[in-house]
Amino acid sequence: MMKRPVRFFKTILIGIALFNIYAIVLSAAENDSISNSKNLKEYIRVNEDEPQIQIGENIAIANTEYGKVRGYIMRGVYTFLGIPYAADTSGKNRFMPPQKREKWSGVRPAVFYGNSAPQEVYNRSSTSYDMFVDHWNYDEISEDCLTLNIWTNGIADNKKRPVIVWLHGGGFTRGNGIEQDGYHGENIVRYGDVVFCSVNHRLGVLGFSDLSAFGDKYKDSGNAGLLDMVAALQWVHDNIENFGGDPDNVTIIGQSGGGAKVCQLATMPQMKGLIHKGVSLSGSAIKGNNKSYSRLLGEYIVEEAGLSALEIDKLQQMSWTDYMKLAYRAAERIEKTTEGSGMVRGSFGPIGDGVYLPEEEFFSNLQSPDIPMIFCTTFHEWGVERDNPAQDKIDAKQAVEKLSERYGRNAQLIYDAYAQNFPNARPIDILILIYSNRMSIVESAIAKSQQKSPVYMAWFGFEPPLFDGRIRAFHCLDISFWLMNTDLMLTHSGGGARPRILSKKMGDSLLNFVRTGDPNCSSLPYWPKFTVENGETMILNDICEVKNDQDKEGRTVLENSFNKKP
Fold this sequence. Notes:
It is built from 17 helices and 15 strands. The chain is of the alpha/beta class.
């Protein structure tokens, strides 16, 4: 592991690189809809030759409920990293709801990202194209992982800036608040004068092992990771004014697993007053995991550990690596001995326990928050093989044969329906569109439409020129566009003016949404609310336009075929 001083200077170097990136973004941002953009441009022009970072004994000090923290100022943006919002989750706190942290004396440095939650990290080898594209950021891993990061233009200045809280992807088993460089908050904070936060929380077996069968002590163990997010948002509510934010205007946004987290939090009665808007990207949820199955899995875990019901506390004493191994062994065994898992988010994820998450479909509970939401997916979420040029040469017959592996005799019907919706698409593109279908995101938007607050739907289709154009609008690509980081995440966007122009449009729309609950702005065509009848969808691409449920016929055939036996 790298030493803290080395990691701190690495952070500084990343931050310094952002200056030139943002200067480019500003140069392309004509007719800005953000009121202070001209002032920021002037600040950059006047000060570009001055020192770009400030850190010292009396610089960037903010109060929190646990004590003071010291961050640094990067080109005018206050940056605080790795702030604890709850206690270490190891030992007696393992499987427990997040606990309050002991207050510290003096001023705590907050200059590098907090520990990642225990997990199996992605392949980081030099031969991995996935590593090249995403260059995952992981550092120290431990159970002392309940931290968050904050970027803001001012502290304790009573400005009441809108707050954006980022929930990372990686399903519920991987990831962290700065997993990808595209998660970085500096650019959107400087451009839009908002406060941006990102959160680490417990994952996988340490966040979602349901041991409730073994007594009241463990009654919340199956949703501990979800309760971490609740605690983080409570911390934001209680502390964010010290960082120039408005606790009464908080937008949660997440991608992939983070998109599902947005949906789950947006249906929890405990979230009323803590969240006010939501953005779900390339991931959604309308139901929690089955509580009976999760409870049974907990029993399998204890059995796998060779413990009696009276010895359950010993699970808190073993190393997290040993516990992770035995819990996954138990999950494998229960899959083999039962008919289907009953789990919608893998073996370890949030549970519809009837206490925190409803057992029924999300958004139907009258006690749930009723907040405006945006749902968005990419055109080519899944099925893209970056290192397989031959894939692009398949014909329609080969595409149907490939589909038949999943859909059996329904493959031809599904292919023909999508080909009708997208008459100019090549066979490979139709295949990937089917693999990347919008069934779940539309299902979630329809469920959310039961409430009074507006729902907006987007579909991201921008294709960068990487890998000879084969990379398409892949899963995760849109993150750096929403957060105005396309020049920082070059291995996603390709960089340059083309993605920068779309990023400005999307950034303006997101910023207007977090301010008002409406994504409409001068940078985009009029974006109507989503309705079940018409499926109004903003297509985000080089040319942005609204289309009504463009893939409806294909998706309908797919839905009708999905549960039929081949």
